[in-house]
Write a structure and sequence with these properties.
By secondary structure, this protein is an all-alpha fold. The chain has 20 helices and 2 strands. The chain has one domain. Helices cover about 75% and strands about 0% of the residues. The radius of gyration is 22 Å and the shape is globular.
Length: about 500
């Protein structure tokens, strides 16, 4: 045989079944973009409907893969379909779909695109979701980075979508510059790890580092840049500076796309790059993450107290909430037991999922109160909501209680799961620190509840919202209570998925 004849790929390399969801979304989003070009302004509700159908199609493919419970590698092991990736994708679809439902009225009222309900918002949201899906299933530093950039570039464009709005433009500039810096850190860390191990594939990196065949000095330097880049994407201290300005400056619909589903994808790449690729260096990266977690809990909760802008307050709240997620990563690898590690990491995954669902509902209510020419961004805008709309005031109260960790809301169960994982490793002092700062954080959440029910309304006009938004918002609030009363199912699913992923 001629030595120039190409080597045939194995069956595993040509298996497209695990990638059907990504392929379907790419084709559907491209079709939606083309269809939207020929729609008149009054007919663009079709773009919204097609976007939801595209997400539903992806959910079908991922649910079939999740139900199979198998782990499949493809594209020369650059892509993996495992229980963790499929579970996180399903919640990514849910969060993105809820975001589109909550955003429809807001986007149309502000004419953010070329004509009422222009398709740019929806198409960029779908491309951002495609990037998140690639991140979640990435089994190579290269595929993870490509997914990250696809997601990031779509979000940069979304933040800058209101071209004539000075605050949004400023937020877009800050997000782009600091996001590029974070991507540079991450890429530089990846390149150093590649230089030390000779591999881009997650499994191969783990084998080389665990065998002690890589230069430890280069690995440590690469790890520092890797952790810094991941901390930027999570928005935790000391790499948090972009979060408050971007969350406040971006249109609320875009803020929801920034603070919701991407957190699930970021959690996934933290697991891939640190837990799966560098388990032998767990002591090093866990020490760094411990400092990051404590600083985030302290800074986020204390600074949020002084805020009068609710979007900015929730931005600092996000920093503190991500501190809890990092706590689960800190204690996950301290023991040799796979069961203990799976319990800790699944608690982190559970916390991230619950945080995303609660945050999506919170920003959805902020958009519900907004109207043309007025952004409901101040805490004072929630005065008298209990009289204007008692049901949605109850929903907002549920969401605030959940974020504060008040039982029986599901946020309490999420915090308890993480704290239990921390305490089980003997780091009781760390659990005590987390509880103390959570108590401080409860103040600004309860302040919103007080404003809703006990302050007189400055605006007594009726709240007009589409039927689909009212239904989804109601289901969102009910789900937070139900999952808090019956938390076992999702916790068990997260644990099973994480255990299967770590065992592969």
């Amino acid at each position: 045989m001629n030595e120039m004849t190409p080597t045939l790929l194995s069956a595993a390399d040509t298996n497209l079944v695990p990638v059907y969801a990504e392929i379907f979304l790419l084709i559907a989003t491209s079709a939606i973009l083309l269809i939207d070009m020929y729609l008149k302004a009054g007919k663009r509700n079709l773009t919204y409907a097609l976007s939801l159908l595209a997400i539903a199609g992806c959910a079908v493919f991922s649910f079939v893969d999740f139900n199979a419970g198998t782990t499949v590698f493809t594209f020369s092991n650059m892509y993996v379909s495992d229980p963790m990736s499929n579970l996180l994708k399903l919640f990514t679809y849910l969060a993105t779909a809820m975001t589109l439902v909550y955003s429809r009225q807001y986007v149309g009222a502000r004419d953010m695109m070329s004509g009422n309900l222009g398709g740019e918002f929806y198409v960029l949201a779908l491309f951002s979701m495609l990037g998140q899906m690639i991140m979640i299933s990435g089994n190579s530093m290269l595929s993870i980075y490509l997914g990250l950039e696809l997601m990031s570039l779509s979000l940069y464009a979304l933040v800058a979508l209101r071209r004539d709005h000075a605050i949004s433009t400023e937020a877009a500039m800050k997000y782009f510059v600091l996001g590029a810096l974070a991507s540079g850190f991450l890429l530089y860390g990846m390149s150093m790890i590649y230089g030390a191990t000779g591999f881009l594939e997650i499994n191969k990196i783990s084998e080389v580092t665990s065998a002690g065949k890589a230069d430890p000095m280069i690995l440590v330097f690469g790890l520092v840049f890797l952790v810094a880049g991941l901390a930027f994407k999570l928005g935790v201290v000391p790499f948090h500076m972009w979060v408050p300005d971007v969350v406040q400056g971006a249109p609320t619909a875009v803020t929801l796309l920034l603070g919701g589903a991407p957190k699930l994808a970021t959690f996934a790449i933290v697991i891939r790059l640190l837990v799966e690729a560098l388990p032998s260096m767990a002591f090093d990266w866990q020490q760094m993450l411990m400092v990051v977690a404590v600083l985030s809990l302290a800074f986020g909760n204390i600074t949020a107290i002084a805020q009068t802008n609710i979007k900015r307050m929730l931005a600092y709240s996000t920093i503190a909430q991500m501190g809890f997620v990092v706590l689960a990563l800190v204690v996950g690898n301290t023991g040799s037991s796979l069961t203990d590690a799976a319990a800790a990491y699944s608690a982190g995954m559970y916390y991230t999922i619950i945080y995303v669902l609660t945050t999506v509902g919170t920003f959805g209510l902020i958009m519900m109160l907004a109207r043309a020419g007025h952004e409901a961004e101040l805490i004072s805008d929630f005065k008298g909501l209990g009289k204007r709309s008692p049901w949605f005031a109850i929903v907002m109260t549920i969401l605030m209680f959940s974020l504060a960790g008040v039982p029986p809301m599901v946020g309490f169960i999420a915090k308890y799961a993480v704290l239990q994982a921390v305490a089980n490793t003997g780091m009781v002092w760390l659990a005590v620190v987390a509880v103390m700062f959570s108590l401080i954080g409860a103040f600004y959440y309860l302040r919103i509840v007080k404003t809703i029910w006990f302050d007189e309304a400055a605006d007594t006009s009726a709240i007009s919202t589409p039927l689909d938004m009212r239904i989804v918002m109601s289901l969102n609030g009910v789900a937070i209570v139900v999952m808090g009363v019956i938390p076992g199912s999702l916790l068990a699913v997260c644990y099973t998925a994480m255990q299967a992923t770590l065992a592969k």
